[in-house]
Design brief:
This protein has 604 residues and is of the alpha+beta class. It has 17 helices and 16 strands. The structure holds serine (SER). Serine (SER) binds next to strand 8 and strand 9.
């Protein structure tokens, strides 16, 4: 069965009586006016207002489609047999209409009867419950009644069985919707020796163990909640269903091979890479996969009117192209001769669905000129690296600062010589460079404070928390317009039409103090500007930044940091060092600009 057939079967199944869904047109991949995200990254995204309770314009309560999506959070995972940045998501939705007892049997029937997946190969997971949302016994009972034995029903917490656009209930911003979910996994079988690097671990294997034996093929989210405050969820007016299943993964299950790149959605691209490089997929899986995925994403971005640039969507496109260009280079496809053949294959795969009118002669030069640019930098950078007897942190830093060579490229070259670069040393190089440049007032990256007294450093971190809290409470339009920190106070200006209400001010202050009390680590990462922008770190739009920047973040990881900003530092090492803060006063200093003064509260 081809992937197109899977897509068609899904659409027909959910359209048919008694499911009676209306097929809607998928949303464009590129979102222009959504401040929360650059791309459509799931089928539910265009439906958020209706999941929140607004009636759907046509009056329909059962909707479905197949949605092309881009997710860049998984970009580092691309290269294994299942992760993608571009994918297609089959989706069906109930806007306060049917619920669990219809959804789970339907999706089960679709998998087992329509696609013929053996029922014994299906495993499922349900939400284990927490102090706010009960354990999902109802879904478990439904799965049992369908013939899934309890040994194949797993309970997990919010990390695995809760879905919202922004993660767990704790990570959800106020106003976000989400709910517990129930996932279906396909079991490729114990007998399968999947990969040298991820041998099947028999003892502790379970659907979410990531050993490669199981592949998630569908997620039924029961969108029932809205976040209304820190640790506070409220029931939505409707109980909704939001199902999403990755077409590439479902096709892999139908194929009986867990490698999504072996489905007909990738095979023709892999074949060109194979003949073009004279190398075999089996020996170069990571390179082939990264090229195939990123190339596909780039072609779809092109089809959506994006061109590589230094901003927003164009930045992501540039980054994806450079990443796959580097892999092309590694495979020895350096003449770009293969590019038209590759882009043509992408268009062929989707010519009947999404890329009907795309002309290849326009696509490949659009992508090719970006690759050309990257190659010329790469050659110069590699030449420099080659001329060095040892590739250490300092050399890696120089090649980044001078040629824009990503750290990973230097490290890979170092490794090929049996050398290694210590990331901490590399970051230290940065520090060194920063203080040097500060003293000569020619910054590698802007930022940095003149006064390094403990009070100023504390207030500096507190100011990052102030900005993060303002954004949470007032919205992402809040950016820094001005900032000045002395030993006694931090002064912070931002655009807002009116002064904040007392209640809002109190909320902001409380939020900062709550974060301080959580004793979160404050760390930084040094990275190329492109990469930093792609993390979504806050930066002042009218500032100029060097090609390499420092990003400070509060929390364990940059991905789920409470605050994440381009900044030279310095900052405290842990929020607990700040003590407590107080918002001393606010002023309206001009049309649409508000100024807030923040002070440290003396310890009692
Ligand atoms: N929104 C859910 C997901 O993206 C299901 O559609 O996984």
């Amino acid at each position: 069965m081809t992937a197109s057939e899977v897509r068609e079967k899904y659409i027909n199944y959910f359209k048919a009586n008694p499911r009676n869904h209306k097929e809607i047109s998928p949303a464009p991949l590129v979102l222009e006016n959504d401040p929360t995200t650059l791309f459509t990254s799931s089928g539910m995204q265009p439906l958020v207002p209706y999941l929140m309770g607004e009636p759907y314009p046509s009056g329909d309560k059962r909707l479905m489609d197949s949605q092309p999506s881009i997710r860049t959070v998984d970009v580092e995972e691309v290269g294994d047999n299942r992760h993608l940045t571009f994918f297609e998501m089959l989706g069906n939705w109930s806007l306060g209409d049917y619920f669990k007892k219809e959804q789970l049997p339907w999706i089960f029937e679709f998998f087992t009867k329509e696609l013929g997946l053996p029922k014994e190969r299906l495993w499922v997971s349900v939400f284990e419950g927490n102090n706010q949302v009960p354990k999902d016994e109802e879904s478990a009972e439904i799965w049992k009644s369908l013939g899934i034995p309890k040994e194949r029903i797993y309970y997990y917490g919010v990390e695995k069985n809760w879905w919202s656009r922004s993660g767990t209930p704790q990570q959800m911003p106020v106003g976000e919707i989400g709910g517990p979910d129930s996932e279906a996994f396909y079991d490729f079988g114990e007998e399968l020796k999947l990969h040298e690097n991820s041998p099947f671990k028999k003892e502790k294997c379970h659907p979410n163990c990531e050993c490669g034996r199981f592949l998630e093929i569908g997620n039924s989210v029961f969108i029932q909640y809205k976040k209304i405050g820190e640790d506070k969820l409220e029931e939505l007016p409707n109980k909704n269903v939001d199902f999403g299943g990755g077409l590439e993964r479902i096709a892999a299950a139908v194929n009986g091979d867990p490698d999504i790149y072996k489905t007909d959605l990738f095979k023709p691209i892999i074949e060109v890479l194979d003949s073009g490089s004279g190398k075999k997929y089996d020996d170069n899986e990571v390179e082939f996969r990264v090229i195939a995925d990123h190339l596909k994403a780039a072609v779809f971005l092109f089809a959506n009117g994006v061109t590589p640039s230094n901003k927003q969507h164009g930045y992501v496109m540039r980054r994806l192209i450079r990443r796959f260009a580097y892999k092309m280079n590694k495979l020895g496809i350096i003449t770009l001769k293969e590019l038209p053949k590759l882009t043509e294959q992408v268009i062929n795969i989707y010519k009947d669905s999404y890329l009907k009118d795309l002309e290849n002669y326009k696509v490949h030069p659009g992508i090719g000129s970006e690759i050309d640019k990257f190659f010329s930098t790469l050659y110069r950078g590699e030449k420099y690296l080659d001329s060095q007897p040892v590739i250490n942190a300092q050399v890696a830093f120089n090649s980044l600062a001078t040629y824009g060579i990503p750290f990973e490229v230097s490290r890979e070259l170092a490794k090929s010589r049996g050398q290694d670069i210590d990331i901490t040393e590399f970051e230290k190089e940065f520090e060194k460079h920063q203080s040097l440049s500060r003293s000569t007032s020619a910054g590698v990256f802007k930022g940095g404070l003149a006064d390094h007294s403990p009070e100023v450093i504390k207030l500096h971190t507190a100011t990052h928390l102030l900005l993060a809290s303002l954004r949470k409470i007032l919205g992402d339009q809040v950016v820094q317009k001005g900032q000045n920190i002395t030993k006694d106070r931090s002064r912070f200006d931002f655009p807002n039409s009116e002064k904040l209400t007392d209640k809002e001010l109190k909320e902001v202050e409380d939020m900062i103090n709550d974060t301080i009390q959580k004793s979160l680590p404050v760390n930084f990462k040094v990275m190329p500007k492109e990469e930093a922008l792609a993390t979504g770190a806050i930066h002042a739009f009218n500032e100029k930044y060097a090609d390499t920047v420092k990003v400070y973040f509060v929390g364990d990881r940059i991905e789920n940091a409470i605050s994440c900003e381009f900044c030279g530092g310095p900052h405290v090492g842990n929020t607990s060092e700040i003590g407590r803060v107080r918002i001393k006063k606010q002023e309206k200093i001009g049309a649409g600009v508000i100024r807030i003064y923040l002070t440290l509260k003396p310890a009692n």
